[in-house]
Amino acid sequence: MGKTIFVLLDACGYKIATENLGFLEHMVDYGLAAKYKIRGELPSMSRPMYETLMTGVPAHVHGITCNEVVRSSNQISIFKLCKEAGLVTGAAAYFWMSELYNRAPFDKHCDRIQLGTGNGLIDYGIYYWEDTYPDSHLFMDGEFIRKTYKPDFMLYHPMSIDLAGHTYGADSREYAWKVADMGVLVADLLPGWLKDGYSVVVSADHGMNENGLHGGPTDLQRNVPLYIFSDKVEKGRFEDHYVGQRNIAPLLCRLLGITPSDGMISPDKIYFK
């Protein structure tokens, strides 16, 4: 088994990430990480893509076709596979993750902090429901869970990039600044994660267009980065071709050392050692 962290940067497009996530790009330059270009699934919306990222199946199969579908997942997710393998899971994330993998609808009066409550598939979770929730607080929520409960699989899911994109558009300085700020937060924590023996995957659910929208098929809305920090993969830049977003779930399974579900594809064009 291998401990794994998944950092899901909501609405962080490929181009803006390449331009502003300086330390992650530095790690790739020095042969300490792998980087790929992900071609996102459709619709390029948050809740459908959360489900695709965590289950490896497309929207027409899992049925979360838009953000307005509020129910728990009916697919085999990373969290379910971890539980079946006896692994501990944690999440510091937007409340839609709790709805998908613990219980729906989310009750902010009692569902914000779920630490070993047995409500669902995520063992230890701290959730937020306001898009303005500070990323710095979100990462410290996650660090509390990681250091206290030592999960095998840990999800960090900040939202401020998405909020800036919707408010100002993908060509705005505000959107770029939020991505750069995120790069600092991740750079501060990444060395400690690696020292503690975690593989780390950084990616996004979708991008953002100039009008502050996503959901459609354009490059700005679909193309997102994939950074992998792990001794189990070949290091370097592999950005000359697209990798499908359905590869993320089986990649996480491979890093965790668990068997993917039958609905997941075999990781395609990701180079393992």
Give a short synopsis of this structure.
This protein has 273 residues and is an alpha/beta fold. The chain has helices at residues 14-20, 22-29, 46-55, 59-62, 78-84, 95-101, 135-149, 160-168, 173-195, 219-222, 248-256, and strands spanning 4-8, 34-39, 89-94, 113-115, 124-128, 153-156, 199-203, 223-229, 236-244.
Task: Walk me through what this model shows.
This protein is α/β, with parallel strands linked by helices. A nine-stranded mixed sheet has the order 4-5-3-6-1-7-8-2-9, sandwiched between helices. The radius of gyration is 17 Å and the shape is globular. The relative contact order is 0.25.
Any idea what the radius of gyration is?
A: 17 Å
Strand content: 15-25%
Give the number of helices: 11
| Span between termini | 16 Å
Q: Output the strand order for the largest sheet.
A: 4-5-3-6-1-7-8-2-9
Mean pLDDT: 97
Tell me the name of the CATH homologous superfamily: Alkaline Phosphatase, subunit A
Poorly predicted spans: none
